[in-house]
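One chain shown below:
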Amino acid sequence: MRDQERSEELLGVIIGNRSATPLEFWFALLEGEGKVAVLDEVVLVRTNVPQYGEVKFYGVITDMERYLEDSKYAIDSKLYSEKKLPALASWIAKVTVTRIEPEDAFLPPAPGDKVFKASKEDVEKAFYFDAMGDNKVPAGLLPNGEVFYVNLEFLDGRKGAHVSITGISGVATKTSYATFLMYSIFNSKHAKLRNYKGMVFNVKGEDLLYMGYKNAKLLEDTDNKAEMEIRLRNREMWRKLGVDPLEAEGFKNVQIYAPPKSGTLFIDTPEPDVDTSLLRNVKVYGWNIFQFARERLFRFLFVDERNLPEGVSRLVNYITERLALSAERELERNPKPKTITLKSGYTLSDLKDLYDALESELDSKNRYLLPKDESTNTIRALLRRFEKLKDELNRLVNPKLTPPDFREGDLIVVDVHSLSSKAQSFVIASVLYNLYLEKIERGKTEPIVFVLIDELNKYAPSDGYTPFKDILVDIAERGRSLGLILIGAQQTASQVEPRILANSSLKVVGRMDPAEVQKPIYHYMSPVTRQRATILKPGRMIVSQPDCPVPVLIKFPMPIWATRRDEVKEDLSQDAINEMFL
């Protein structure tokens, strides 16, 4: 034992004037010997118990205090600093236990037991990395530089699924961490055994459209000394994570879908509403009216409006089902329909036609899309809403368009940033619903599709109802058995449907609003951890996973892939130009 202790770094001893429990204890640092420890430090304690022999406690420092023993007056600190007051300065740290060996030795350590700084092997045991086997997925770096892993079994549906990422906009780096985690999953050892795909909705600018390119600002050298130091530091972080950033590829087989540019639907091939000067193979997405009707997407036109009046909601559901019935009848006449002809002889090719058809039935006795006994006021209330929407969304419903297909690439990026808020909601709800239905119809778990949705509190609010909310809750509860994994990002988890959060195996928190982080939904974090969340810098996250009872602070590097246009190195060679434009 003594030889072993000499090879380890002794930090301090457990104090006896505070209670120690099997789950937490305090220890005094050997400050006079120059020992230093920080929050998040992993420690090891050994104690001897006759019944069990040697018992090991692994834990994380979660709180610290420094004070003068028996100091009564504020001026004592000044006198002590001037060496005019003989006093003892104490430095103590609180440890939250993460693991005990043997597991049935559930008892507290003893006062005076020595506390050691954890070795690499101790860290593996403290966070149960040793029990993960090939399911270890790098999820960042601990403050001491060791790799922090999450258990893939709790991400891809075998034991659990879904990820919740919370943080204020702009500095919490929610999307950056989500894509970093997806990259780690796609490059894990287990990815070779299972078929993983990803779907990302790009809602802000064109940042996520360049994920198929390398990040020149990370991988190339620069004469700017400060910037070069940042790049070198991030490259080293990648190497610790097991990736050589200069050799590794970013996301592979990226397929981008963009909405049609307004004014180009009259040509044979509508143009995508994105900057295509660098982007290649961008596909235009949308729905023809037959798909819109058959897939019951009419109800998603109103997904951005919570708590529709009961009458209007009932009417929306009725029209949705009548359109679906009309689509099935159209399919009997035409094996590849792109339009719908109603019983009245009215032909629908887009949303404007649908609005006109509904308006024409308003005062008609021969209603088909509308219930015969529905009041005029209710119908007018619906038409007022639909009239505002049809012009915003009409470019997404056209005979020349087809919806995104998740089978087209390993990573699908669906761009919605140029659309209005209501149109964004419609697209995200419709695409995910199509994917959900296909997973149900195929009846196969694979491919396992990880879907990243930002602003989850907008689509699945904790209060109120939207038709999309039911689907998201169903995915949260059944998705792991279908191979459909939700990565939800939001500014305020307290405003997200609790059933979705309860089914999220991995919970991640970035920079937080002080008022938000004090709400009960964050009960899994200690008071100190909650307070730290309010001052986190970009690139720092607090991660909670089922294998570890303590949320852990981690850091992660700049992405290898480009996250905006100015990170892409333009290739102006003739081959690149030919590939881009020919």
In short: The chain has three domains: 2-126, 143-285+402-577, 289-396. The longest helix spans residues 310-333. Confidence is low (pLDDT under 50) at residues 1-6, 576-582.
